[in-house]
């Protein structure tokens, strides 16, 4: 089971001080947060990708490459890489390069992006979102697996005799997660390729995601990648902790009330009741997170959103320490004890390399 | 005969409100009309005032509360819809519009082809065209089938006619319009298969297999 942090990379005014960090401060803070994640014993740091203010992370592999040089164990990932508006050729090149520099500690999460103007800024149309995601990923998948690619599609200029360089490290492409909050098509896509499916369920009631994840699991089995309970599932979560839950609530409330995503809407109490947001003691976070397994089955990756809504860096670092010291060790133990032996861990470069060596070169992959 | 469900949405703000009064009369008239052709009906009343905060929250967070989700589903799953709004600033009320704005794409799709009776309540009779210029276009966007007769009730429609020469106002004229609109709605509902027997528009049942997605 992998635990980690995912960052949206928003520049938000701290509502308690009125201070807004500069872009430079926010970018450096994201790096500090990633380094803290490794120090606290977490497994993954994932950055968002945005192309409009108030967000800073437009260039994820640049940031992750820098973090790779300053860490030794942390898996570097994204949440999400825009498969719709990025050129799949550039994604293939950038992440293969990152994979070499990070010695394989790389995977990525693909998403469509829901900011309508970003599509035309990159020459696309949001109404083609699903088709872009399907076609672009199919090309990306081939670019990492075939040395020379001839290709023709609807959205990108054709390729004739193209080789994406560098080739993936050890000939093993980075593992891919597909993120979606509502589209069965994306769950179907993840299942078809035997890729991971990440459900960022932090704003929605669980019933919605139970159906989406169950669908992915069934289709994963249908395409012959293993049984439904062996499908690779990741979940989001957002927490704010203090030793006493009342302290957590009173400290977090102004950030909640002014957060761009839910400010002005439901009360903190209503939102914690109806979504996975947990504001309270570490034990409450443990208890709530354990219910995720009850709702969605044994899963492979849990990412927490911690550095948003204008929370000061010092507070975020304290939160990550609490996560690493008091929450994650308990979750690892309890979830590990309940997990059946046939349920796999999330694939890593090492496990994918070992699996490829084991099956050697006689067995064709299920999905090409 | 399979029973039909009619969602009755009232955006009236006071209790009791003229909108709700009108909505109830429209439902009763529709029920009677369906009864006369041996089609039993039952109402699901949605008072938008009860969901006012949840509707705002849903628009901000995209998370409908359980009770709002139930109200939205009641509208999406019904065999017909009676929608009544007060007239504010010459149009439907903000709350009325926000409720329909809070429908998710699947529920919006469920409104396509659904028989709808559009009605409004106001003080002045001069706003009677609000149904034609505001409410009907919204349901047009949703591809609903709005019955030809819209029912507008002004303050004077709840009493005796004030214009006895033309007979255009007053309670008798309102009753007549209610009966005509309800008859049109009942005819449409009775002519369609019951919603309960139509295959649910389930994205997980009707999903597109990947090989087909890949072909575009």
Tell me about this structure.
The complex is a heterodimer of chains A (368) and B (216). Chain A is an alpha/beta fold and 368 residues long. Chain A has one domain: Alpha-Beta Barrel (TIM Barrel). Chain A has 12 helices and 13 strands. In chain A, the strands form 3 sheets. Chain A has a 9-stranded parallel beta sheet, covered by helices on one side. Chain A has a two-stranded antiparallel sheet with strand order 6-7. A two-stranded parallel ribbon of chain A has the order 11-12. In chain A, a hairpin with a 7-residue loop joins strand 6 and strand 7. The radius of gyration of chain A is 20 Å and the shape is globular. The two termini of chain A are 27 Å apart. The mean pLDDT of chain A is 95. With 216 residues, chain B is of the alpha/beta class. Chain B has one domain: Rossmann fold (3-Layer(aba) Sandwich), CATH 3.40.50. Chain B contains 8 helices and 7 strands, in the order E-H-E-H-H-E-E-H-H-E-H-E-E-H-H. In chain B, strands 1, 2, 3, 4, 5, 6 and 7 form a 7-stranded mixed beta sheet that branches. In chain B, a hairpin with a 2-residue loop joins strand 3 and strand 4. Chain B is globular. Classes of the chains: A alpha/beta (368), B alpha/beta (216).
């Amino acid at each position: 089971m992998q635990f980690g942090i995912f960052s949206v990379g928003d520049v938000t005014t701290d509502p308690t001080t009125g201070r807004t960090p500069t872009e430079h401060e926010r970018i450096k803070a994201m790096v500090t947060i990633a380094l803290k994640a490794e120090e606290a014993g977490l497994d993954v740091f994932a950055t968002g990708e945005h192309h409009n203010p108030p967000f800073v992370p437009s260039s994820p592999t640049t940031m992750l490459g820098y973090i790779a040089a300053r860490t030794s164990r942390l898996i570097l990932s994204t949440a999400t890489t825009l498969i719709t508006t990025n050129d799949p050729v550039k994604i293939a090149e950038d992440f293969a390069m990152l994979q070499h520099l990070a010695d394989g500690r790389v995977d990525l999460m693909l998403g469509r992006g829901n900011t309508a103007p970003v599509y035309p800024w990159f020459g696309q149309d949001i109404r083609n979102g699903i088709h872009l995601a399907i076609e672009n990923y199919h090309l990306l998948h081939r670019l990492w697996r075939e040395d020379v690619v001839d290709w023709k599609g609807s959205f990108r200029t054709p390729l004739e005799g193209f080789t994406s360089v560098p080739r993936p490290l050890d000939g093993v492409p980075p593992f891919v997660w597909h993120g979606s909050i509502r589209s069965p098509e994306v769950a179907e896509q993840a299942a078809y390729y035997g890729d991971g499916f990440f459900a960022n369920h932090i704003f929605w009631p669980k019933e919605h995601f139970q159906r989406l994840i169950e669908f992915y699991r069934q289709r994963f089995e249908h395409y012959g990648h293993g049984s439904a309970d062996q499908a690779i599932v990741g979940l989001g979560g957002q927490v704010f902790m203090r030793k006493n839950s009342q302290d957590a609530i009173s400290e977090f409330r102004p950030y909640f009330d002014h957060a761009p995503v839910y400010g002005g809407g439901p009360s903190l109490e209503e939102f914690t009741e109806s979504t996975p947001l947990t504001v309270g003691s570490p034990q409450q976070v443990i208890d709530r997170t354990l219910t995720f397994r009850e709702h969605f089955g044994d899963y492979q990756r849990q990412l927490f959103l911690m550095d948003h809504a204008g929370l000061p860096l010092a507070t975020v670092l304290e939160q990550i320490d609490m996560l690493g010291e008091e929450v994650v060790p308990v979750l690892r133990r309890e979830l590990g004890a309940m997990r059946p032996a046939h349920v796999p861990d999330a694939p890593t470069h090492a496990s994918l390399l070992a699996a490829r060596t084991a099956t050697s070169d006689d067995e064709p992959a299920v999905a090409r | 005969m399979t029973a039909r469900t009619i969602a009755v949405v009232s955006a009236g703000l006071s209790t009791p409100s003229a909108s709700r009064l009108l909505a109830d009369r429209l439902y009763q008239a529709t029920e009677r009309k369906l009864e006369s052709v041996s089609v039993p009906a039952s109402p699901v009343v949605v008072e938008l005032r009860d969901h006012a905060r949840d509707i705002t929250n849903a628009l901000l967070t995209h998370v409908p509360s359980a009770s709002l989700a139930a109200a939205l589903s009641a509208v999406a799953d019904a065999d017909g819809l009676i929608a009544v709004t007060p007239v504010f600033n010459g149009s439907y009320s903000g709350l009325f519009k926000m409720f329909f704005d809070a429908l998710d794409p699947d529920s919006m799709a469920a409104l396509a082809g659904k028989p709808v009776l559009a009605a409004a309540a106001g003080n002045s009779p001069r706003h009677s065209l609000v149904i034609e210029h505001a409410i009907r276009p919204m349901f047009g966007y949703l591809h609903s089938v709005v019955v030809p007769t819209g029912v507008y009730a002004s303050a004077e429609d709840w009493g005796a006619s004030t214009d006895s020469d033309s007979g255009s106002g007053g309670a008798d004229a309102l009753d007549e319009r209610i009966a005509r609109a309800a008859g049109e709605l009942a005819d449409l509902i009775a002519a369609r298969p019951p919603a309960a027997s139509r295959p649910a528009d389930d994205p997980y049942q009707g999903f597109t297999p990947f090989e087909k997605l890949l072909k575009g």
